[in-house]
TrEMBL record, chains A, B:
<feature type="domain" description="HTH gntR-type">
    <location>
        <begin position="20"/>
        <end position="88"/>
    </location>
</feature>
<dbReference type="Pfam" id="PF00392">
    <property type="entry name" value="GntR"/>
</dbReference>
<keyword id="KW-0805">Transcription regulation</keyword>
<protein>
    <submittedName>
        <fullName>Histidinol-phosphate aminotransferase</fullName>
        <ecNumber>2.6.1.9</ecNumber>
    </submittedName>
</protein>
<dbReference type="GO" id="GO:0030170">
    <property type="term" value="F:pyridoxal phosphate binding"/>
</dbReference>
<dbReference type="InterPro" id="IPR015421">
    <property type="entry name" value="PyrdxlP-dep_Trfase_major"/>
</dbReference>
<dbReference type="InterPro" id="IPR015424">
    <property type="entry name" value="PyrdxlP-dep_Trfase"/>
</dbReference>
<keyword id="KW-0663">Pyridoxal phosphate</keyword>
<dbReference type="GO" id="GO:0003677">
    <property type="term" value="F:DNA binding"/>
</dbReference>
<dbReference type="GO" id="GO:0004400">
    <property type="term" value="F:histidinol-phosphate transaminase activity"/>
</dbReference>
<keyword id="KW-0238">DNA-binding</keyword>
<keyword id="KW-0032">Aminotransferase</keyword>
<dbReference type="InterPro" id="IPR036388">
    <property type="entry name" value="WH-like_DNA-bd_sf"/>
</dbReference>
<dbReference type="InterPro" id="IPR000524">
    <property type="entry name" value="Tscrpt_reg_HTH_GntR"/>
</dbReference>
<comment type="similarity">
    <text>In the C-terminal section; belongs to the class-I pyridoxal-phosphate-dependent aminotransferase family.</text>
</comment>
<dbReference type="InterPro" id="IPR004839">
    <property type="entry name" value="Aminotransferase_I/II_large"/>
</dbReference>
<keyword id="KW-0804">Transcription</keyword>
Length: 500, 500
């Protein structure tokens, strides 16, 4: 998008005929580019060096131009990344409503979400060309394809029997040792033997549920809730009790405390503490501490599903719930699926006081993970490559989120509410109450865009006028335009729908 | 072992001074080498060409020498493989007893095998240097390490995003298409969409059990039974009813028919029809047909666990149970873990009439398999490499089995019974009744050899004086000697144990 400016350098001699100082003339030129949409929210500004070369100015002039734009709230500096066109503040949309912690969704119910999801999947599979804003992974260019490919080639050459020799039951020891060291950053103190590698994070969550529940038991979950968890509960014959969850601070602790008192059949609590899916909320440290303490006191296992922690937009990602665990109450589940490689099914679990039982269940269910991807991962994690990749991934996602937020704010109708996520790739958007997300899902597909309707994020039918949008997996320009089309569609549907 | 003869060529001039014809003198020389143990049962004889060169004789003489040895029952010709020293007929040991089909083991019982297996594992882990005759895969040199490594390097170069892009839910479509074509050889007519890739065969069996049972239900299993299945039943809260199983013809159909009448709570039957683990039996076609018909008539799902079919020692491996299925009664589970690559966790399932439910369970439990190993496998199966590998694997295993059988027959005490398996790598040996396999297991470990005690092959304590030996994963000479030591150990234990 910045190409038109980048390719059309304006020599400073032309500008200097003007009576204004040079730095201000240049700032005005960029101000116009921003106001007429040549530069768009989230676009990267030229580096200082490029700016100096392009306009034939000194560092002092370049710096002063950027200060003018920064003071005018048109651009933002970002550490290590440079300057970016500021995103129209998402405050243009009202923040999502905070849930009423007194409203726990009725009673615990057996989960029956599968047929709705099947219908959803078979519907969108009829539109293979649709732009996918309903996915769960970042765009492919944000993952380190080349580096992982090279790591895999190295691993195969160094260890030719990776495919023909069976691996250790718990997973590759070298990888587990590296993971144990890295877990310190999440505040988790464990050894390599406290880790069992799993086929992705979802196998870890399934094993945790199987270790602590029997069919018919009730599990407290966040509301809205990642539909993959609802499917796991359904497949295990469990009931879900949906606990109000804040779009900014995550699970409402008081609501859970109340539920534990009134529902003695709750046998586990499942929480995504960092970048809840779909809300994008991050629990504050004090909430994390309270939650762990509450579950420990009640003697209820707390299953932490934490695959997004390293995508939180912060210099140092927050800690996991497990950091506050003193007696093995927390079962920690995570994976490298979202942060590193959607094609690698490498997750891990620390089972707290249920660790031996989880080891038995994992062995009985699927034996050890394949060695190859574990060795590739160990090689990648050993160097600084993973940290560099994470910084790049977070920067890339931030840019995409800012553009998406601007497009949503600019195009969705009155009555839309939205709290910007704290990182990651999900947008949980409340549409005007008149708009059914199921109808919106179908109409959007007809218009060539796939979204996730809110209906599949609750077993109790609570989010019918919500949608989840994901950062695009293709080019940003096409996604911008798609989001604007979605906004207009929502506007039309709100205008024509009978008020409810 | 043949080195001493191979390196000490006997020129025919020295021999021809003898009054006997040359071909007979040469045959006598080899007869002596066999009788004094220089050539051992199962050893490969020199090829015709080598024989001619070494002894400076014509093809006619070489052929005649081998005919003499063959008529004397000292060597055997094997198609495409050459001549081998004949194995002392295993008839030296009485065949294992046929089970009494009227004796179904008491009542269905909840499975409690895990703690016994844990103890077993932690015991043998204290002897990491022990020779492993308790494993479940063939020796590493029988798997195509180089070819698979090359296939993996090719796959990674051709498709760099294999690690970073998520794959299709059911598994790689190209691989499923190839598997569907190959399944015709097992008598199975399915399409690529009727296949779901799984993390090894054990995940397939777990999914099948979860699809058709609830905790507390009873499952009919073979007796003796692969302990991995007993662990799966235990982890799913199921009861096992052990059905008598013949060491030569597999599951006793009449016994199952009787059990189905008397136990209306049986919700599934699990059978390993080809090379039952640990028995090594293969069900005759007529039995397969009856079994499928029996289950179909009773409306009971028949879960077929068929990972060893291609290891059956035959020109054309037998068909799967699924070949006789007309109404979706049979759930077919298998993997490439035993036949191709123990390091690859690639299995698949056809769920018969429960296929959609199994697809849901697989997605909820662990999502799709990793793409990389599936693409490697597809590349390998597409060529003739897999068939060539299978022939080599079967030949290698046959040689190992024949030597093992000879060593067992030569060294185990009176009262030992044993039916040679029809292929594969397992030996199920009945020790004299006085010998406890648990004590034998510990004493053997002390002597540096790991075996599997019979106790873990039944939930009803039925095989206390049995052991399972596997073909060795290291050099055959060491294994021969180890089996002889085991035989002497069994002899001592039988002599000193109180009669029971």
């Amino acid at each position: 998008m910045t190409e038109s400016i980048l390719k059309r350098p304006q020599p400073s001699s032309e500008l200097s005929a003007n009576s204004q100082p040079l730095y201000r003339q240049l700032a005005d030129q960029y101000r116009r580019a921003i106001s007429n949409g040549v530069l768009r929210p989230g676009d990267r500004m030229p580096s200082m060096r490029t700016f100096m070369q392009r306009h034939g100015v000194s560092l002092a002039t370049a710096t002063e131009s950027y200060r003018v734009l920064e003071r005018a709230a048109l651009i933002d500096a970002r550490p290590r990344a440079g300057y970016f066109v500021r995103v129209a503040p998402a405050a243009a949309l009202p923040a999502a409503a905070e849930p009423d912690p007194a409203v726990v969704a009725g009673t615990a119910q057996f989960v029956g979400i599968h047929s709705a999801i099947s219908t959803l999947v078979s519907t969108y599979q009829r539109y293979p060309q649709a732009l996918n804003l309903g996915g769960a992974t970042a765009s492919p260019d944000l993952y380190p394809t080349d580096a992982l490919q090279k790591a895999a080639l190295r691993a195969l050459r160094a260890r030719p029997t990776l495919l023909t020799a069976a691996g250790p039951d718990q997973g590759d020891p070298a990888l587990r040792a590296i993971i144990a060291r890295r877990a310190l950053e999440a505040g988790i103190q464990i050894g390599a033997d406290d880790i069992i590698m799993t086929h992705g994070g979802i196998e870890a969550v399934n094993l945790a549920l199987r270790a602590v529940t029997q069919p018919g038991d009730t599990v407290a979950v966040e509301s809205p809730c990642f539909f993959g968890l609802l499917q796991a509960l359904e497949s295990l014959g469990l009931r879900a009790l949906e606990i109000p969850t804040s779009p900014s601070t995550g699970l409402a602790i008081e609501a859970l405390a109340f539920a534990l008192q009134t529902h003695p059949d709750i046998k586990a609590v499942v929480v995504v503490p960092n970048l809840q899916n779909p809300l994008g909320s991050v629990m504050p440290d004090a909430h994390k501490a309270s939650l762990v303490e509450l579950c420990a006191r009640a003697g209820i296992p707390l299953i932490e599903d934490d695959p997004y922690r390293e995508l939180v937009d912060a210099v140092a990602p927050p800690r996991s719930l497990k950091a506050w665990d003193t007696d093995g109450t927390v079962i920690h589940c995570t994976s490298f699926n979202k942060t590193l490689a959607p094609g690698m099914r490498v997750g891990w679990i620390n089972g707290g006081r249920w660790h031996p039982r989880i080891g038995m269940l994992k062995f009985a269910q699927s034996r050890h993970n394949e060695q190859l991807s574990q060795v590739v991962l160990a090689g990648f994690l050993e160097t600084s490559a993973y940290e560099r990749h994470l910084r790049r991934l977070r920067d890339g996602l931030r840019l995409q989120r800012e553009r998406m937020a601007a497009a949503v704010a600019a195009s969705f109708p009155d009555g839309t509410r939205f709290t910007p996520p704290r990182g990651g790739l999900f947008f949980w958007i409340e549409l005007p109450r008149e708009v059914s997300s199921a109808a919106f899902f179908e109409a959007a597909l007809d218009d060539g865009i796939r979204v996730m309707p809110g209906t599949v994020f609750s077993n109790a039918g609570r989010f019918d006028h919500f949608i989840r949008l994901s950062c695009p997996s293709t080019d940003l320009g096409r996604a911008d335009e798609a989001v604007r089309r979605l906004g207009r569609l929502a506007g039309r549907m709100a205008a024509h729908a009978p008020k409810r």
